[in-house]
Amino acid sequence: MSKKGFFIAVEGINGSGKTSVLKAIQSDLESLSIPYIITEEPRGTDVGLALWNILHSYKVSARTEALIMSASRSDHIEKVVVPAMDAGKHVISDRHAASTFVFQKSDLNFEQWMKLTEYATNKLEPSRVYILDIDPVIAAQRSTARNGISDKFEELDLTFQYTARDRYLLLAKKSDIYKVINAALEPENVAKIILNDLLNILGVTKNS
Ligand SMILES: Nc1ncnc2c1ncn2[C@@H]1O[C@H](COP(=O)(O)OP(=O)(O)O)[C@@H](O)[C@H]1O
Ligand SMILES: Cc1cn([C@H]2C[C@H](O)[C@@H](COP(=O)(O)OP(=O)(O)O)O2)c(=O)[nH]c1=O
């Protein structure tokens, strides 16, 4: 029987460098012939995209938002993550369940979030979640430089982003699957730290 792939997630506030680091490690994964896919939440499936559009069309409570994000997660797990893992590919997701704990937070405590996540993911937990940790002021400067514009979820004020950072760090204390990465480092160094840890998890030795 072929070996199942690993499931990995990358998290962090907007502008923390998730997309950049994923781009940076791709060539290493390819040169090492590691089978992988990179995917994303909440827009990783057609259903996820449709739900994202709903969130941008209607005003809903944080509770409803958490359920919609969880529905999107469930579809992503069923249609993208599990099939790829079953095919022996490692799945690296740009955002996953931690984002719901951090952003749809009005009355979502850790225990409620765990139950919601277990149901949405059918108890599939990532082997590792990298939390790119950075001062929200620096992240906001990066995002503005990148886009010039921001979308509904990026228009969150700085206080919210500081709370989001704290929520990530709170989550990191709950389990060893979380690894907090200093995302203020140079992009090459952030990528190197993540790649080395990832290869270790995958049991791959780099000959250089
Ligand atoms: N370590 C870094 N140092 C400086 N700038 C960075 C770093 N990582 C990413 N950036 C820049 O910050 C902006 C946001 O990065 P991005 O990867 O799109 O973040 P995210 O996907 O987390 O929103 C981009 O313009 C990117 O080039
Ligand atoms: C997965 C997920 C994302 N989000 C938000 C966080 C982001 O602001 C947005 C995704 O937008 P995106 O443009 O992908 O932002 P980023 O580059 O920072 O990942 O969705 C939630 O609020 N809850 C969730 O469960």
From TrEMBL:
<dbReference type="GO" id="GO:0006235">
    <property type="term" value="P:dTTP biosynthetic process"/>
</dbReference>
<dbReference type="GO" id="GO:0004798">
    <property type="term" value="F:dTMP kinase activity"/>
</dbReference>
<feature type="domain" description="Thymidylate kinase-like">
    <location>
        <begin position="10"/>
        <end position="192"/>
    </location>
</feature>
<dbReference type="InterPro" id="IPR018095">
    <property type="entry name" value="Thymidylate_kin_CS"/>
</dbReference>
<dbReference type="Pfam" id="PF02223">
    <property type="entry name" value="Thymidylate_kin"/>
</dbReference>
<keyword id="KW-0418">Kinase</keyword>
<keyword id="KW-0808">Transferase</keyword>
<dbReference type="GO" id="GO:0006233">
    <property type="term" value="P:dTDP biosynthetic process"/>
</dbReference>
<dbReference type="InterPro" id="IPR027417">
    <property type="entry name" value="P-loop_NTPase"/>
</dbReference>
<dbReference type="GO" id="GO:0006227">
    <property type="term" value="P:dUDP biosynthetic process"/>
</dbReference>
<comment type="function">
    <text>Phosphorylation of dTMP to form dTDP in both de novo and salvage pathways of dTTP synthesis.</text>
</comment>
<protein>
    <recommendedName>
        <fullName>Thymidylate kinase</fullName>
        <ecNumber>2.7.4.9</ecNumber>
    </recommendedName>
</protein>
<keyword id="KW-0545">Nucleotide biosynthesis</keyword>
<dbReference type="InterPro" id="IPR039430">
    <property type="entry name" value="Thymidylate_kin-like_dom"/>
</dbReference>
<keyword id="KW-0547">Nucleotide-binding</keyword>
<dbReference type="GO" id="GO:0005829">
    <property type="term" value="C:cytosol"/>
</dbReference>
<keyword id="KW-0067">ATP-binding</keyword>
<dbReference type="GO" id="GO:0005524">
    <property type="term" value="F:ATP binding"/>
</dbReference>
<comment type="similarity">
    <text>Belongs to the thymidylate kinase family.</text>
</comment>
<dbReference type="InterPro" id="IPR018094">
    <property type="entry name" value="Thymidylate_kinase"/>
</dbReference>
